[in-house]
Amino acid sequence: MPGALVALGGNALLPRGARGSWEEARSRMRATAQTLARIARRYRPLVLTHGNGPQVGLLLRQSELAAREVPPSPLDVLDAETQGEVGYLIQSELEPALRRAGSRLDVLALVCRTEVRGSDPAFRRPTKPIGRFYSEQEARLLRKQHGWTMAHDPARGGWRRLVASPVPLRWLEGPAVRRLLSSSAGRSCVLVVSGGGGIPVVRRSRANYAGVEAVIDKDRAAALVAHELGLPTFVIVTDVPGAAVSFGRPGERWLHETSREELERYWRAGEFAEGSMGPKVEAGLDFLRRGGRRFVITDIPSLARALDGHAGTRVT
Ligand code: ADP
Ligand code: MG
User: Fold this and answer.
1) Domains, in order of start, for the chain
2) Does residue 292 line the site of ligand 1, with CB under 6 A?
């Protein structure tokens, strides 16, 4: 199947430092959509996924400010809300871009869950910072009131809540989406799936799942989606044109065409920062190890050229 999974980073959705208004998001998506519409002709099916870090951050702040009047929702519900929000954002800009490019594809966004293991060691050692920065007194209070894990970030001068980032085990909607894509109805759509890494759930009993307070790394979840759908190409779109060795240091070198073995060597040597480029490279390696054909890291301006083999980091 000559299809592709394209994972859009939070920063491909909202410019870094943006306040997060709908207008900012739409104008950013307008540029992204133009490029996606161009590649949608050649990559069938085109399946999209996306991050939700900034969007969840805004919802957390909103619910914090409104807590006295409106009961705050748990994190899994906020994830569901952002899947709807970003799905709608993509629809709003991608459909007109597709029509302008002469394509009749529809854009369909689906609410998706990702199963994690309740016994995942990540729950005992939360590592993923979410939400705003707090003072030391606030941090102490939140720890006592909600049992949150709070961590000090001296560089940015404050305390933040940490949540677990467990390993994604299973994409619950995967089999249904696979069936959809094998039908003519599915083939007439660009699908948006598993936004924000999917809503994290644990299995209680048969077909009974419960949401958990965790975040799933969207790059890891994207690798799972690409694998589940048997898509040969997996693209991670972020805000740098690719992966570099000696990143930000003298002798910095951007990787262009590379092999899985070479990328793996650099990864083991610690060339890719934890929490940013590290999980992307890890996700790509995982995808290739499980039979994926091509893994690409790029940004929006270079996306089309990267797929043609002239930009980005390309791994085969
Ligand atoms: P996204 O929201 O797209 O997931 P991230 O901030 O998580 O974006 O990851 C992209 C960032 O990774 C880049 O902005 C860059 O600063 C950082 N980065 C860390 N190590 C590297 C590296 N070796 N090569 C390129 N970028 C790197
Ligand atoms: Mg990231």
Assistant:
1) 4-117+171-315 (3.40.1160.10), 126-163 (no CATH)
2) no
